[in-house]
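Bench notes, afternoon.
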Amino acid sequence: MQSTQKYWETLLLNQFHDVLPGSSIEIVNVEARQMLSQLKKTLIADISCLQHSIAEFMQASRQGNRQALTRDSYIFNSLCWERQEVVAVPHGTVEMPLQLTAEGQQLLLVRASPMGVTSTQSCSQLLAPDQHARIKVTAGEVVMSNEHLVACFDKVGRLMSLKLQGNAKEAILPSHPGNQFVMFDDVPLYWDAWDVMDYHLQTRKPVDNITASPSDVVIERGPLRVSFQVSLQISARSSILQTISLDAMSPFVQVNVTVHWHEAHKFLKVEFPLNLRAHNATYEIQFGHLQRPTHVNTSWDSARYEVCGHKWADVSEYDFGVALLNDCKYGYSCLDNVLRLSLLRSPKNPDEQADMGLHTLSYAIMPHRGSFQSAGVIQQAYNFNYHLDIMTLGTSSGDSITSETDLTSSTGTCSLVTTNNPAMIIETAKPVDNCNNAILLRIYEAFGSSAKGMIKLNFPVNSVLG
């Protein structure tokens, strides 16, 4: 396995100047895609190798030293809190799965240990009836529900209603559907790929030309996951396929989107008119969050019609709010409590082919009680971006693994690092440069205050420096 230094050089080279915002000339964009694609393949292979070694070590710890490995699957959680989620595992992982995917994988409800590894043999599939994910399709709507929420969509895939179970509060503004794709004319005065002008907001046009209705394409019917697809035509050249899903025990509705994009000077967004009154919206940035107004009372406010953000944006009033999570887009806006996520642009200078072609992206809408901090929005956004990984070990009759230290519990779980304060995020664990057998933990306070807590290291430690 190569040194990570080379990986960082390639990654940072392709985040320089015009590459990151997408305003490079064509040859730079082509080379950047090629280099990043190769880097992704290399990293996936290295991560898989490391996970395999950890899984073998854990299995040896469970079975006793120098025993042959048996077939088992392990779940890797890189985040510092326990996660209970539905995951797709290889066929044959469990004997009697509750649900199969269209591709033949098994869906499994798992409880993954924080920053560690969990054997699927220790995962219970017991699910109370009120925890099931359900879907009901009628001529004009699709209703999805689980123990947390109820969501109603129309035949175009627009979100007509979103409520928490046991709460009469409607999250979506009546007669103003959410999950509404909208197109804007995007013609800057001077700098095509660099600028977005405020007057583009005056050219809003909904995308509602349906080509396949939900009643025809219900994909999954529970009890662990329900989902349906809707196809929309943007123009003669561009189209959208969205898969809308809800998992058992999930606090959000997820939308996976595939876009065939062949436009010129157009701007695609998705919007959610919220039934909330809030002076400010909150947007995540690296190691924290910031607030921006939802109104244009001053010239400073009117200049903030597009806001940078990372994994989530949240609009809340007292004791209730709605968060929008996403996995790869970084432009938001919120005016009069209409929360928008910017998806795709189509500038023609300096690269005429910029962003043309096939795009895949995901976002999720999460209603919640209380503040975004107490509701776990930060953790759910991390979960949405850092998926649980699955590693399956086959039977081996060759060299066995020697385990000198037993890091696993009797339940088949292993947590390397944990914290007892949800405001303390262990964002990074990495080897220390030029220092053998040393690990660096990068921890930040995520709620916007001060925090005290305990970091537990579940492996032998000689010394700790802070």
